[in-house]
Amino acid sequence: MSHASSRIALITGGARGIGAAITARLSHDGWRVVIADRERPQHPPAGTRALLCDVSDEASVNGLIDGIRRQEGRLDVLVCNAGISVHKPIAALSLAEWSGVIGTNLTATFLLVRAAEGLLRAAKGAVVTIASTRARMSEANSEPYAASKGGLVALTHALAISLAPDVRVNCISPGWIHTRGDPPRPADHAFHPAGRVGVPDDVAALTAFLAGPESGFITGAEFIVDGGVTRKMIYPD
Ligand SMILES: NC(=O)c1ccc[n+]([C@@H]2O[C@H](COP(=O)([O-])OP(=O)(O)OC[C@H]3O[C@@H](n4cnc5c(N)ncnc54)[C@H](O)[C@@H]3O)[C@@H](O)[C@H]2O)c1
């Protein structure tokens, strides 16, 4: 594939974790990837363009998409992956903390799609949002994260209808994906019906499928990638 004709994917939060795995997978598959992150990636794949951007900031997002329009001239796939969480009792949670999580995890997808709609429609492209199983189940003290991800699941199907038939919009809701820190314990793996905790490549593989033509009949869908945990009945000992 020539450089000029190759497809362009924009991955938010691509500097590390799940976003870095999606970047590596799509690059390997022949996509030209633009990373938008508030941090610089450590080891981006060759050919990747990495841009500093706060996806919760309107001017920053508009500048990002304007730059892609000028430099790449097209946008085929948008992966809305950047995300943060704040875990605090609600009494201790400030409005700024609440708004920060909603801004990064939910409002960013509105800003990105609004700015990129023309490019995505022209490319007959696809959007993949990364939500969470926490859209549907909770630990204590996770209100802003749960609300943002529940909103993102709903925003995904709303966009799928509004952008049809030009752009397909789908959502991946990961469960426990190990990205850093201490490795999961044997009991953590055994808790999962799939027999293990997830890895970033589990999400990257599905993203690659949803970005490509083989998923052409799939839009407005949510895919749970959690090793079966949200299907597991749990009783007290
Ligand atoms: N790891 C998991 O177990 C898990 C489970 C369910 C859902 N998720 C979701 O998957 C996505 C990726 O998670 P991860 O574990 O790789 O997280 P991570 O913290 O390792 O990486 C997130 C990336 O997003 C970037 N980012 C954060 N705020 C940003 C902003 N305002 N603008 C631009 N970039 C920003 C960070 O710099 C970082 O590179 C998130 O949306 C997260 O909520 C993760």
Task: Walk me through what this model shows.
The chain has one domain: 3-Layer(aba) Sandwich (Rossmann fold), CATH 3.40.50.720. It has a seven-stranded parallel beta sheet with strand order 3-2-1-4-5-6-7, with helices on both faces. Helix 1 (17-28) packs across helix 6, helix 2 packs parallel to helix 3 (95-123) and helix 3 (95-123) runs parallel beside helix 4 (143-162). The chain is 39% helix and 15% strand. It is an alpha/beta fold. The protein has helices spanning 17-28, 58-71, 95-123, 143-162, 186-191, 200-211, and strands at residues 8-12, 32-37, 49-52, 77-80, 126-130, 168-174, 222-225. It contains six helices and seven strands; from the N terminus they run E-H-E-E-H-E-H-E-H-E-H-H-E. The mean pLDDT is 97. The structure holds nicotinamide-adenine-dinucleotide (NAD).
The secondary structure category is: alpha/beta
Please provide the ordered H/E string of secondary-structure elements.
Answer: EHEEHEHEHEHHE
* CATH fold call: Rossmann fold
Classified by CATH, the class is Alpha Beta
Uncertain stretches: none
What is the overall shape?
Answer: globular
Q: How many DSSP H or I helices?
A: 6
Number of domains: 1
For CATH, the homologous superfamily is named as NAD(P)-binding Rossmann-like Domain
- Beta fraction: 5-15%
Gross CATH architecture: 3-Layer(aba) Sandwich
* Ligand identities: nicotinamide-adenine-dinucleotide
Distance between the termini: 57 Å
Determine Rg (CA atoms, Å).
Answer: 18 Å
Percentage of residues assigned to helices = 25-40%
Give the assembly state of these chains.
Answer: single chain
Number of DSSP strands? 7
What is the residue-averaged pLDDT?
A: 97
Please give the largest β-sheet.
Answer: 7 strands, parallel
